[in-house]
């Protein structure tokens, strides 16, 4: 009889332990889903805040010169708020950046060594790899890479052998790490026609019809980027949009 009671007690303890485990796992799953939902809601809030403030920035660019709310496309950060949420906004003329599709090897090398501060050897490697990635042939430069190199990677892929469609495509180029990419991001573009470095600065940046403009909205570590083509008279056409997180 005592043996039977002991067996029942052990069985009940196992049942209790099993149920406790189920409850703990369920609670953990509920907590994880709640946290995920909270992150999604916060990301959506950031999204609507960012695009509302970018719209406000577009309006402010077209205000009269004597209006203190007017902003300039000079890359300087300003703080704006929407729905009790503050953000940093800056507007940049893409013509002030170097077009990665048009720049030649000499100018790109000067930019990488003088502006970014790369050693000559590293700059030469990056120049050759970037130009190899965008040119139409399959003949590698001395420090570059073509199809054979990219097909040897895991997973393998082919170089574009054509113009870069977005700056993010640079991440596929041999030698371009995320750290290097972000060091280049604010100085390069795939829009506009500028191929000079350094470019002569204007006395005061103004909105120019036919130019592309980059709007960057920063909310905490959440960045939203929109590039527009300026049609004149305060009208813009969006040609690119993206968002990313930076720690």
TrEMBL record:
Q: Keywords of this protein's UniProt record, alphabetized?
A: Cell inner membrane, Cell membrane, Membrane, Protein transport, Transmembrane, Transmembrane helix, Transport
Write down the superkingdom of origin: Bacteria
Tell me where in or outside the cell this protein is found: Cell inner membrane
On whether Nucleus is a keyword of this UniProt record, the answer is no
Name the major location. Answer: membrane
User: What do the Gene Ontology cellular component annotations say?
Assistant: plasma membrane
Q: Which residues form the T2SS protein K first SAM-like domain?
A: 105-191
Q: Name one Pfam family in it.
A: T2SSK_1st
Q: Would you kindly state one Gene Ontology biological process term found in this protein's UniProt entry?
A: protein secretion
The record's similarity note reads: Belongs to the GSP K family.
Annotated protein name in UniProt:
T2SS protein K first SAM-like domain-containing protein
Q: Which organism is it from?
A: Desulfofervidus auxilii
